[in-house]
Amino acid sequence: MAAAGLLGAVATLASRRLLCAPPGAARGRAAVLGPARRFGASARAWRSSEDKVTVHFINRDGDKLTAEGKIGDSLLDVVVDSNLDIDGFGACEGTLACSTCHLIFEDQIFKKLDAVTDEEMDMLDLAYGLTETSRLGCQICLKKFMNNMTVRVPEAVADVRQSIDMSKNS
Ligand code: FES
C-alpha cells in the first residue's frame, strides 16, 4: 500500500517535471532520477549556480516569498520544492485541471513567455482575478531571463474541480 503510494507520487513528480524538459531530455525513470544519478559526478556541474533562477512571489497577504529553482523547472516545481506557504497552490499537481496556480507576471517578463496553449487558456478563463498578464504557474518553465522576477499570487483562488463538485451537489 505504502509502496503503491510512493510509486504514484514518483509518477506524478515525473509527469510534472516533463512539461519543462527540453527536447531530447531523459524521460521516464531517468527523468525521475535526475542527471546526477544518470551521469555520475560529472553531471554535478549541471547543477551549478548558473542554472539557478531566483523568483520572488508576492503572496495573498502581501508577504514576499523568495525561492530558487533550476532552469527548466516549472513555477509549480519551485513552490513545491521550496515548500512555499501559498494556500491551495497547485492543487491538481500540474495536470491543467484546477487553475490554483494562477500567477500574475510583470509586463516585461510576460511579453517574453512562451505562447499560451489552448488548454492553459481554457483553465485561465476560469481563474479568479484574471489580468492581462496572468498565466498558470504549472505551465511556465524557468529560463535565465526570469532571474529575480516577481510574480503576484492573486487575492482569490479558484479550484475548477471544486466548482464542478459543488455544482453536482446543488
Ligand atoms: S496546478 Fe492545476 S492548473 Fe496548474
TrEMBL record:
Pfam families: Fer2. GO terms for cellular component: mitochondrial matrix. The keyword Nucleotidyltransferase does not apply. SUPFAM superfamilies: 2Fe-2S ferredoxin-like. Gene3D superfamilies: 3.10.20.30. PROSITE patterns: 2FE2S_FER_2, ADX. Keywords: 2Fe-2S, Cholesterol metabolism, Electron transport, Iron, Iron-sulfur, Lipid metabolism, Metal-binding, Mitochondrion, Steroid metabolism, Steroidogenesis, Sterol metabolism, Transport. It is found in: Mitochondrion matrix. Residues 53-157 form the 2Fe-2S ferredoxin-type domain. Its main location: mitochondrion. Its cofactor is [2Fe-2S] cluster. InterPro entries: 2Fe-2S_ferredoxin-like_sf, 2Fe-2S_ferredoxin-type, Adrenodoxin-like, Adrenodoxin_Fe-S_BS, Beta-grasp_dom_sf. The keyword Cell membrane does not apply. One of its GO terms (biological process) is P450-containing electron transport chain. GO terms for molecular function: 2 iron, 2 sulfur cluster binding; electron transfer activity; metal ion binding. Belongs to the adrenodoxin/putidaredoxin family. This is Adrenal ferredoxin. It comes from Crocodylus porosus (Saltwater crocodile). The gene is FDX1.
